[in-house]
Amino acid sequence: MDATVLIELLSAAVRIATPLLFVALGGLLSERAGTFAVGVEGMMLTGAFGGAVTSFASASIPAGLLASALSGAALAGIVAVATARFRADHMVTGLAVNILALGLTSFLLRGLFGGKAPVIVLPTLRPLAVPYFCELPVVGQVLFQQPALTYAAFFLTIPIHLFLMKTRAGLALRAVGENPAAAFSVGTDPIRVRVAAIVACGALAGLGGAVLSLQELGTFTDGMTHGRGFIALAAIIVGRWMPFRVMLGCLLFGAASALALNIQGWGLPVSSYVIQMTPYLVALVVLCGIGRRARMPAAIGKTFIRS
Amino acid sequence: MWRALLLAAFAVTLAFAVTAVPIMISGRNPLLAYWALLRGAIGSVDAVAFAFNKSTPYVLSGVGVAMCFRARVINIGSEGQIAIGGVAASWIALNLSQLPSFFLILASLLGGGIAGALWAGFAAVMRLKRGVHEVLGTLMLNFVGSLVVSEVLHGPMGEPGAGFPQSPLFPQSAWLPNLFAGTDMHIGIAMAIGAVLVCHVLLWHTPFGFRLRLLGSTDTAAAYAGVSLLRGVMQVMLLAGGFAGIAGAVEVLGVHYRLIDGFSQGFGFNAVAIALLAALNPLAVLPAGLFFGFLEAGALAMQREIGVPSSLVFVIQGLTMIFVLCAMGVGFKQPRV
Q1: Three-state SS at B320
Q2: Shortest Cα–Cα distance, A186 to chain B (Å)
Q3: pTM value?
Q4: Could you say which architecture CATH assigns to the domain A3-118+150-293?
Q5: Model ipTM value
Q6: Up-side HSE of residue B13: CA atoms within 13 Å toward CB?
Q7: Mean of all residue pLDDT scores within chain A
Q8: CB–CB of A86/B329 below 8 Å?
Q9: What domains sit in chain B, N to C, each tagged with a CATH number?
Q10: In B, which residues are within 8 Å of A234 by CB distance?
């Protein structure tokens, strides 16, 4: 394998990791506050849909990005109300909004455009080279010639890390995820914190969807997220609920997918379906490898009842 | 019992009411859409037979999911288990076709069930030995299972020159017989009713069912009673996987008469929605499964007749689930031990 192939591979890994990273950072906020983020798949899909339809109608990518964050957050609002207020089971509620998102986006796509699925073709975000840095050998080509949302996703890891680990609000959020009763006793309302964390998760997952519809593919198709939200959940576990490690987890899955895509080009006798299985199989193998060492937030999945 | 029924009726009504909003956004009259849906579901003998066939795999896989949820095992892997069950059943139907019809069908169904159980068993082993949460385990295996169907259809089991990923037609001796002459309604629904009864007896009248209910009650009760998490999780996953595998077999042997790409799509979510609507009560899975089967059959007819997209069903299902979950959460109906 020569250098150009390797550089292409790494660059593809970063690109494929981008939507995962948005979703995983969102899911991290939700899970650190004590709510399983199974609904990120649906939030991602609604985000992809909101972004695609809005930028199609307004011919503006920024408007599309805003709409994708808002639509993801709106779906997350349902999860927040159901789990935090009505104490519904986190996992199954997440699953329910995933179905809802699948149906709603598919229905509205046809409903808004009169019966048939319209062909939406959008201009996609082009790669932007960062001056000076892009000329660095290898690193420049891998990291600094990427589209805008890729920079945004990786940069976002820093403020999220700082927020979670270095601010009072971040401490309160983590406290609610570890021991809501204790947090409540010092004046933090766990329900409010969880609602806020879930909605923020939805906005980020929505942006992750926008990466697919506005940056990668330039269109929307039914169920286009194909389980990427679930892969992001695996990345959170791999990263043990720590922002920078979660980022590495996303890169790991990005690299696995990039490698699998590349193998096809080498003319090896591997069918495309086996290659499509790779991300899921890698996720399972990695999760099995981690085993019980991953410690999740102590109060995750547990409902808080004020008494 | 009455409260559970009331809860289900409440959730379904609310879901239909809320679903009217997206229908109106798309510029249609919701009442007309629902009327078309109703006519499509029960408007003719053929429609009813079609709806019963639709319901069969849902009931079979839904009752397994209900048993799992009882033990707080969140098995959402029916889709993959159905896919693998369908592959195994198809292989047997195509390769052992010299068997007499009765044994060929029996072997296919059993093969499907065993394959589905093994697929679910994977997830159980990963949960028990490696601590991989069954939600992620079963989800990933769903994707892999569906891709296995594509893989075998593009490889060893595909029909050459068909232009569509499908297996050759099964020999007629492998087709599930119809329940009533003159309709397409196959005997699968009778098997589904059998599965519901078996699960009812298992859950309420056997030590196995008691262990499941203990596992689902509190973290400590099961430990006090000396119930092994290991055994309970494994057994209930194998049971649910087996039923889902049979559902996959029924679908290929009774409806398509061949393996086709994507035949299991969406079945797993249906199974979860049905188990919840039934308040995790095996007997109630039958009406809940029939409801979703008729709903889907009606929605397909609605799409054909007045052009309202049938993906509306997912909206109704998702909303129904959310309302049931909220009501369960605030203690309207907690499953009892």
Answers
A1: helix
A2: 26
A3: 0.91
A4: Orthogonal Bundle (1.10)
A5: 0.90
A6: 6
A7: 89
A8: yes
A9: 2-329 (1.10.3470)
A10: 136, 140
